[in-house]
Amino acid sequence: xxxxxxxxxxxxxxxxxxxxxxxxxxxxxxxxxxxxxxxxxxxxxxxxxxxxxxxxxxxxxxxxxxxxxxxxxxxxxxxxxxxxxxxxxxxxxxxxxxxxxxxxxxxxxxxxxxxxxxxxxxxxxxxxxxxxxxxxxxxxxxxxxxxxxxxxxxxxxxxxxxxxxxxxxxxxxxxxxxxxxxxxxxxxxxxxxxxxxxxxxxxxxxxxxxxxxxxxxxxxxxxxxxxxxxxxxxxxxxxxxxxxxxxxxxxxxxxxxxxxxxxxxxxxxxxxxxxxxxxxxxxxxxxxxxx
Length: 291
Ligand code: SAM
Known about the structure:
The protein has helices spanning 8-17, 34-44, 61-69, 83-89, 108-116, 133-143, 156-163, 173-181, 221-231, 239-246, 253-262, 276-290; strands at 30-31, 50-55, 72-77, 96-100, 121-127, 149-155, 182-190, 195-196, 203-210. A seven-stranded mixed beta sheet has the order 4-3-2-5-6-9-7, with helices on both faces. A two-stranded antiparallel sheet has the order 1-8. The termini are far apart. The protein is elongated and about 70 Å long. The chain is built from twelve helices and nine strands. The protein is α/β, with parallel strands linked by helices and 291 residues long. β5, α6 and β6 (149-155) form a beta-alpha-beta unit. α2 crosses α3 and α11 (253-262) crosses α12.
């Protein structure tokens, strides 16, 4: 087996050899701990029949660990300066392909057709750039492309919010948006010391197992999203007040009360106490009255 990229010494050697300077604006915090990498790949459940999409390979620390276990890895990297570095570090791994692109703009459907028509399942695994965590996760979840799971290192606080249960202070619109599409589990907390440079926050690994069907059936998906976003606009307000100010109008207040009654929800409750199923019932009841 070739020497691991993710040791402090080898990482420094690679950066020096290529004269590479890390760019903070691209969220470049590279992993330098092989145990953490093993744990991430374990949590992802990747095996030799899996195709992996990696977002932001950096100098290839996670990519090589994935390549050792997966059928193939396609790594999407935005920073052109890393292409020659990756060509060098990933040369022992023939089952890896680097795509130079912004993951938020890449044609994911085409990527699956081009690279993964011969694999049993596709999984996303990444140590994400923290400045775009949520847009990247939501892009994959909303795109409806056939991805089985996403296992990602992200800011610990964001992982807690995504995996939060109703009634907790972390629970909010982001929890519902993600859990509508996937079962979320925060698997481990990772200290800042395993990165160079060290981020100012703790990190965590989040595993999202994509559901076959969304967690609730609703008449109109985009309206459902509007309803729960409006319900959390001001966390101190009741659900009735939030909906009256952020979804409907003062004149529509009686119709909103009626919809809450139909859904069996006390108008004095706060958004953070409602489950996804309750939001779905509420959304359908509001849809027929306010739309
Ligand atoms: N995977 C490497 C590791 O674990 O050491 C690097 C992870 S680093 C936190 C994030 C990586 O994502 C960087 O290589 C950065 O250049 C890349 N990146 C940032 N924004 C991106 C985007 N929009 N699309 C694709 N890659 C991006």
